[in-house]
Amino acid sequence: MARFAATGFITGKHALGALAFVAAALPAASVLASAEDPTAPLAAEKVEQGRQLFADWSCGTCHALSDAKGTGSIGPALDGNPALSHDFVKDRVTNGQGAMPGFGGQMTDEEIDVLSQYIVHAKK
Question: Whole-model pTM above 0.85?
Fold first, then answer.
């Protein structure tokens, strides 16, 4: 068990262990925070991956998204659509609805997640 000084702080070798634990947890916490926070900026690498997925899967054929040079008018425009949340887009890309096909099983879960994050980030 850890021993606490009268001040309530961890002392000795336990302090170093606690400090190492906190230091290791910080990067993971920041990744989780940005994935859960729709207002957090998306890393440039993820933006590029999402833009490439948008192009590779021909999303711009049906959807307008200026950042990805998508000009489609068959599906709803993604630019300026305040209703788009990460969960909503992820569900639509995975399962489809109406004329929109579902890409679950064709794209990996990670690809769908990155594409969804990108769309929500890029919609102006």
Answer: no
